Amino acid sequence: GAGVSQSPRYKVAKRGQDVALRCDPISGHVSLFWYQQALGQGPEFLTYFQNEAQLDKSGLPSDRFFAERPEGSVSTLKIQRTQQEDSAVYLCASSSNSGSNNEQFFGPGTRLTVL
Amino acid sequence: GNSVTQMEGPVTLSEEAFLTINCTYTATGYPSLFWYVQYPGEGLQLLLKATKADDKGSNKGFEATYRKETTSFHLEKGSVQVSDSAVYFCALSRNNRKLIWGLGTSLAVNP
Question: For B49, which residue in chain A has the nearest alpha carbon?
Fold first, then answer.
C-alpha cells in the first residue's frame, strides 16, 4: 500500500512569505508527527496529533508555526513570515496506535529553503 | 530531560569489516530504543528496535542490545557491505510519543 506522502517535495520561499506543507499519512493511522531536520542534524520534534487532536505542540519553535489535522487524516504545517533559520527538511511520520510502541513511518520530507 | 548521544561520523570502512556505532541515552523511566537508517536520496526507515532492558533488536544483519545498566544501545554488524552506506540515527521514545534523536552517524563502505 501507499506510504506517507508529503508535498511539495521542495519549496523555495522568500523571507517573509507564508508556506504550507502537506502530509498524507498512511490510511487508518491514528498518530501523526511533524519533525524538523536541519542540515547535518538529527530530526527535532515539532508536534503530534492523535486523530484530529493536537496533543503535543511543545516543539513548535515560535508562534509563526501552526499545524492542523482537521479531519484526523491529512495534516498541514504552516509557517508564517518565514525566516532563513526555518530552512530545513520537514518530516512527517504516522503510526497506527498511540497506546503501544509502534513504528513511525516517515514520508520523504519537504525541503524548505528560505532566501 | 531525555536525550540521545551517538558516535560522531563520518565512519569509513572497507567491505566485510566489523561495524560498531555507539549510542547512549538519558531518559526517565523505561524508553523504547530505535535505530533508523537513511539511505542516500531516501526517507528514514526503521532498522531495528528494542522496547525493554536486555532486548536485542536485529534486522538485515544489524543488531543492538538494550543495556539499561550502561544506558546504551550500540549498533553492530559483523560484515558490512557497500549497500550499507547510509546515515544511521539512534532514537528513543516514551509511550510511543515523540522520538528524540541523536545527530546521526554517516557510514561509507568502500569496496
Answer: A103
